[in-house]
Amino acid sequence: MAERETVFRECLCVITGASRGLGKELALQLAPSLTGASSLVLVARSGERLEEVRRAVLASQPSLRVLLVPADLSTGQGVGAALAALPQHRPRRLLLLNNAGSLGDVSKFVVDFTSPAEITDYFSLNVTSFMCLSAGVLRAFPQKAGLTRTVVNISSLCAIKPFKSWSLYCMGKAAREMMCHVLAAEQPDLRVLSYAPGNSPHITIGRGVRVSTELQWGSEHQHKHDWERAGNGIRGKSSSGGVNFPIVWCVVP
Length: 253
Ligand SMILES: NC(=O)c1ccc[n+]([C@@H]2O[C@H](COP(=O)([O-])OP(=O)(O)OC[C@H]3O[C@@H](n4cnc5c(N)ncnc54)[C@H](OP(=O)(O)O)[C@@H]3O)[C@@H](O)[C@H]2O)c1
Known about the structure:
By secondary structure, this protein is α/β, with parallel strands linked by helices. It has helices spanning 21-30, 47-60, 76-84, 116-140, 167-186; strands at residues 8-9, 11-16, 34-35, 39-44, 65-70, 93-98, 148-154, 191-195, 203-205, 228-230, 233-236, 239-240, 243-244, 247-249.
């Protein structure tokens, strides 16, 4: 297993869906590792909650530049606002964590989805914004010597396994997963990771995995952690609101 990297200098880290849940936790857990002129861009609809996350982040890493983007990523304007907020300075590391997502209506079976608008709305956030934001960020920071670029897709077991009445969610996650495969094939320099924080975590990576950072889920509450080694990553179990989230986390340096 590769040596773990614990500090990212001059890093630009973008986290979507950072106002609560896993996205908030990622922000809190990553912040201490972001040093030396690093920036953290947090995107979600609720500006109030983002402000709370910023305060918590700065408490642990006061020198970090934290930019908030209260925006609805299901709209073109929202994606545009996130891209417009990207700092102009050139980072040495780019880390995009595509975490924002929604479940969709899980009371319906496939035969119940007769409204094109409902399906389109779901895909706007869960697929379209994922693709457009990834594309926009990668275009803003094209490949160059000395720059390490990583795109993370927060995925799910549903990307690879069908669950009755979860068709929208399964379809969205499957589409994101495939986009990651294509992206990795297209951009040889890029590190692409799909990470599933579900009950049966799986990891798909565009190219060779090296564990560099481990994150623990649930630091905002007093959770019990049960860490164990798992494959290429570190797996931990914690309970959040009564739900168990085994964790596998890898950032490919
Ligand atoms: N929870 C699980 O058991 C589980 C399991 C496997 C995978 N995942 C995946 O992990 C990711 C996070 O899940 P979670 O449980 O932490 O979700 P969550 O608690 O519902 O949080 C979702 C985040 O996305 C943001 N968001 C939702 N709609 C948005 C929109 N239209 N525009 C911008 N931001 C939006 C929310 O903030 P605002 O409401 O402020 O916009 C929030 O910060 C998702 O991709 C999910 O599919 C979760």
